[in-house]
């Protein structure tokens, strides 16, 4: 069921995953029926969530409460009714333990976990699932360092962590896609070991001011940095020989973009920044592969002046003009499909 969406001329890939979202009140027979439904290949795996992401008959963005009580401590022992589960995403605010995933140490490829409101759930069971390739974690921190044993990680999404947790990223040498959002981080961790990293997405990391480590990402093709007010300048992006897309959005402290000079970027977005138009004039003839650019500065006048330095065929008013970037965004939006138990298990 799981397959990769590839972009032409780019090695970047998005894994499309199909879930069945189950309620809290299933009987043993109902769990076994869902297990058979997964084994037969109709979906990749399970989603357990306080908030529904059901996509049958409505937008994926529509979210509503499920019957998983937000105040209840949920027991995951029912997972013993499932065999060789490869995909599991847990979005419950309180669980007793995640040890039941140890049943899938040899089969689990994708695991997502957010919740653990009181930070009491050890992450060590995840570390024993050595086959995990795609990992999503949000807030959960206990025994975080144990995750260094996951040597097969390809994609990693981390939300609401601190410098000490983000530091272990350098241990995941096979990593191709990394997303870090919220939390706090002043200096990007050592990234030179991530020789396979193609996609880097940074969002609202409190205190982040030093991003020089990006220079070491030889394979990087896609760079997106959003809502970072402490960043004032860019690293030397000309070192990134494979870079194709750079999106810089709401970087309220950024006033120097000279790091883009001689960059191989094809699609560039600089949105909601305080950069002066003259900075763009200095980039003329220094973006040899540029195919499209979006500029949105502090004022409309500044935006129009900055745009005037580029060929009109290259300037777009919205991200829809950046075809490769738009393709990635659309594929990301479609990457997760969630079926509701009551719709498919009749």
Number of strands: 15
Q: What portion of residues is helical?
A: 10-25%
Number of helices: 7
Mean residue pLDDT: 90
Biggest sheet character: 15 strands, mixed
Your description of this structure?
This protein is 14% helix and 23% strand. It has 346 residues and is of the alpha/beta class. The chain has a 15-stranded mixed sheet that branches. Helix 4 (278-281) links the parallel strand 12 and strand 13. It starts with a strand and ends with a helix. The model is unreliable at 3-10 and 55-63 (pLDDT under 50).
In brief, what are we looking at here?
The chain has 346 residues and is of the alpha/beta class. The chain contains seven helices and 15 strands. Residues 3-10 and 55-63 have low confidence and may be disordered.
Features:
346 residues; alpha/beta; disordered N terminus; 15 strands; 15-stranded mixed beta sheet
Map the helices and strands.
Blueprint: E1 3-6, E2 13-21, H1 28-39, E3 45-49, E4 87-91, E5 110-114, H2 124-127, E6 134-138, E7 155-159, H3 163-166, E8 177-181, E9 199-203, E10 222-226, E11 245-249, E12 267-273, H4 278-281, E13 292-297, H5 300-307, E14 315-316, H6 323-334, E15 336-340, H7 341-344
Parallel strand pairs: 2-3, 2-15, 3-4, 4-5, 5-6, 6-7, 7-8, 8-9, 9-10, 10-11, 11-12, 12-13, 13-14
Antiparallel strand pairs: 1-2
């Amino acid at each position: 069921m799981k397959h990769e969406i590839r972009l032409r001329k780019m090695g970047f890939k998005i894994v499309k995953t199909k879930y069945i979202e189950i309620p809290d009140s299933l009987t043993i027979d109902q769990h076994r029926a869902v297990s058979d439904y997964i084994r037969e290949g109709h979906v990749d795996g399970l989603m357990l969530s306080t908030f529904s992401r059901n996509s049958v008959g409505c937008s994926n963005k529509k979210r509503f409460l499920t019957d998983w009580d937000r105040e209840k401590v949920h027991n995951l022992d029912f997972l013993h009714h499932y065999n060789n589960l490869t995909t599991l995403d847990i979005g419950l605010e309180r669980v007793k333990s995640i040890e039941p995933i140890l049943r899938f140490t040899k089969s689990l490829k994708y695991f997502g976990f957010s919740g653990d409101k009181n930070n009491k759930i050890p992450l060590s069971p995840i570390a024993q699932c050595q086959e995990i390739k795609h990992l999503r974690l949000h807030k959960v921190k206990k025994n975080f360092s144990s995750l260094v044993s996951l040597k097969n990680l390809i994609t990693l999404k981390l939300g609401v962590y601190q410098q000490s947790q983000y530091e272990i990223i350098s241990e995941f040498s096979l990593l191709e896609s990394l997303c870090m959002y919220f939390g706090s981080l002043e200096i990007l961790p050592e990234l030179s070991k991530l020789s396979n990293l193609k996609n880097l997405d940074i969002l609202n990391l409190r205190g982040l001011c030093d991003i020089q480590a990006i220079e070491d990402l030889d394979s990087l093709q896609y760079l997106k940095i959003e809502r970072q007010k402490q960043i004032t300048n860019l690293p030397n992006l000309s070192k990134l020989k494979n870079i194709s897309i750079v999106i810089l959005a709401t970087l309220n402290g950024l006033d120097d973009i000279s790091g883009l000079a001689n960059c191989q970027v094809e699609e560039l977005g600089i949105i909601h920044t305080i950069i002066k138009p003259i900075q763009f004039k200095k980039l003329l003839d220094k973006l040899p592969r540029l195919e499209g650019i979006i500029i949105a500065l502090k004022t409309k006048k500044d935006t129009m002046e900055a745009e005037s330095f580029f060929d009109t065929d290259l300037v777009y008013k919205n991200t829809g003009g950046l075809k490769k970037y738009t393709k990635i965004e659309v594929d990301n939006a479609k990457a997760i499909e969630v079926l509701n138990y009551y719709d498919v298990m009749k």
